[in-house]
From TrEMBL:
Gene3D superfamilies: Mannose-Binding Protein A, subunit A. It holds the Pfam family Lectin_C. It comes from Portunus trituberculatus. Residues 56-215 form the C-type lectin domain. Keywords: Disulfide bond, Signal. This is CD209 antigen. Residues 1-18 form the signal peptide. The keyword Metal-binding does not apply. It comes from the Eukaryota. The lineage of its organism: Eukaryota, Metazoa, Ecdysozoa, Arthropoda, Crustacea.
Length: 232
């Protein structure tokens, strides 16, 4: 358990380090040059909205399409993350089939074509650890909750809700765009029956723009509560 936490901490530090200004350029940095994660804003945290009909695992969820000012907005992965983070949230992390079903139900109900999740492939500086290779199989994690995902070919436990198909008819993740224009498909979106495949996960280049779902971040809420108190 301790080892696992240390591994996650190392990953988190690697993410922060890779996203600092002036980091050495690589594929991820080229897509996000000079852009950083922002800190939460106490007022925005206090006034954050819960669109989930039921209170799930003590977390609020925000659907960009259900909120007037953002209902027509689509953002790239990092911008969407930062909008969430301002509100002590992050993009949704889908750790269980139950949470996957919750997302599926809401995309269907809202007739939403696709959304960003916090799912991310470790493809930046600090990701050269052997246990993360090959990254398309072993490099996936939820940036919102700092948890690693099981290997996509793992034979036990829940492997997630990856689509069996995509633009080139092969199972996801396929990093298809990388072969076409060099953009690494390093972020996970949930697509609503885009390829006649149901509501499923696809690896997508992080610079695409999409609606998004935010989920409360325990880390950011603890950070904001410790400094400003009085945040639900
Ligand atoms: C998963 O894929 C990796 C890389 O191709 C391979 O080394 C490993 O044996 C695979 N694991 C399973 C359970 O198939």
């Amino acid at each position: 358990m301790l080892l696992r936490h240390l591994a996650l901490l190392a990953l988190l530090v690697a993410v922060a380090w890779a996203q600092r200004p002036g980091a050495r350029p690589n594929q991820a940095q080229n897509q996000e040059s000079g852009r950083e994660l922002i800190r939460p804003d106490p007022e925005a945290c206090k006034n954050r909205i819960n669109h989930a009909a039921t209170f799930r695992n003590g977390h609020y969820y925000f659907f960009s399409w259900s909120h007037g000012p953002t209902s027509q907005h689509e953002r790239d992965w990092l911008d969407a993350r930062n909008i969430c983070r301002k509100h002590c949230q992050d993009l949704v992390s889908i750790e269980t089939q139950d949470e996957a079903n919750f997302v599926i139900d809401n995309l269907r109900t809202g007739n939403v074509k696709y959304i960003w999740t916090s799912g991310r492939k470790c493809n930046f500086e600090g990701c050269d650890r052997p246990d993360l290779q090959p990254s398309i199989i072993n490099g996936w994690f939820w940036a919102g909750s700092n948890t690693r995902m099981p290997a996509i070919n793992s034979t036990h436990g829940w492997r997630g809700d990856w689509s069996h198909t995509g633009g080139s008819g092969t199972p996801q993740p396929d990093n298809r765009e990388f072969g076409e224009n060099g953009n690494d498909e390093a972020c996970i979106a949930v697509l609503n029956n885009f390829y006649g495949d149901g509501v499923k996960w696809h690896d997508i280049s992080c610079n695409h723009v999409k609606p998004w779902i935010c989920e409360d971040s325990d880390d950011l809420l603890n950070f904001a509560r410790a400094r400003f108190g009085n945040i639900p």
